[in-house]
Amino acid sequence: MELQALLITFRETLEALLILGIIITFLKRMNHPEYTKYVWLGASLALLASLGVAFVFQVVLTSFSMMASQIYLKISIMLISSMLLTHMVFWMAKNSRDMKGKLEGKLKAYITAGSVIGMVIHSFLVILREGVETVFFFAAITGGNIQLALQSWGALAGIIIASAVSYFFFKGTMRISLKTFFRITGAMIIVIAAGLLVQGVGMMQDVGIIGSVMPQVYDVTWLLPEHPTDYTQYLRDTGTAPLISGDVGIFFTALLGYAATPSLEEILVYFGYFAGIFLLLWTRNQSSQKKQVDNKKSQVVEDAKVVHSKKVVNV
């Protein structure tokens, strides 16, 4: 859970800080630093709103627990979080290149209109989106205990690392491009999304929402149990301790969706998810390459027309 919290908090905080940095840098470059305080006002209000969302979310989760329906809410959160994480990675891959230009276009409009309210609302919505996503993902990786994730060293470390990266990026000492940076962290997020998806499928099978053709394809509890409890039970039942501690199993379960006794459906969903992601990326790259080729051909045709027209004029 700690590593998941670190990666999610790092990713969301970094995205928020980079966007704020772009806004503030642009305002200073346009000689309008007086608007900076309104940007920070919107960001502060969004942070408070995000904490409010976390509180409400925790109350709802507790209510479902009292109604003995928390398992169904947990399943929903895991599946939705997996989809949101996947969408977030693809969205950032698509928009990271044009994000700066789009932001600056909106800011120019606000400055021209003298809209302080627009500046506050824009920064508020940017930070609120990241905050709400973080709360939702924390609910998924902790099984509903959002407070546990908020108080973890992973969340704190994620914020600190993201702040340091943002600082050095805007100071010009960070040479790596945003596109490459988000590609690397995106790959890690995809792994977490796959794990959440598989855990959701496993929980649905546990409560009988879906069945299984083969409930247990293999059992490697002797090697790496999923949890210290599984370690203790295996030791009690067989008199032999598993080779690796259950604490290590918790780590791999949280990070990779590891299961010591997976069903056939869990295996198919896990590898099918990565196959689907690969297919989507390949299709998008093919489309992008085709578009680049078409643009080059169009440019060559236009250049040829210009050259031809100049020859006609000279004649």
Q: What general outline do the C-alpha atoms trace?
A: globular
Total strands = 0
- Structural class of the helices, strands and pairings? mainly alpha
Low-confidence stretches: none
What would a concise description of this structure say?
The protein has helices at 2-29, 36-66, 70-95, 99-113, 116-141, 146-150, 153-170, 178-206, 228-238, 246-256, 264-314. The protein is an all-alpha fold and 315 residues long. It has a domain at 2-194.
Explain what you see:
There is one protein chain. The chain is globular. It contains eleven helices and no strands. The model has no long low-confidence stretch (mean pLDDT 79). With 315 residues, the chain is mainly α. It has helices at 2-29, 36-66, 70-95, 99-113, 116-141, 146-150, 153-170, 178-206, 228-238, 246-256, 264-314. The chain is 80% helix and 0% strand. The chain has a domain at 2-194.
Structure keywords:
315 residues; globular; FTR1/Fip1/EfeU; ferrous iron transmembrane transporter activity; membrane
Secondary-structure map with pairings?
Blueprint: H1 2-29, H2 36-66, H3 70-95, H4 99-113, H5 116-141, H6 146-150, H7 153-170, H8 178-206, H9 228-238, H10 246-256, H11 264-314
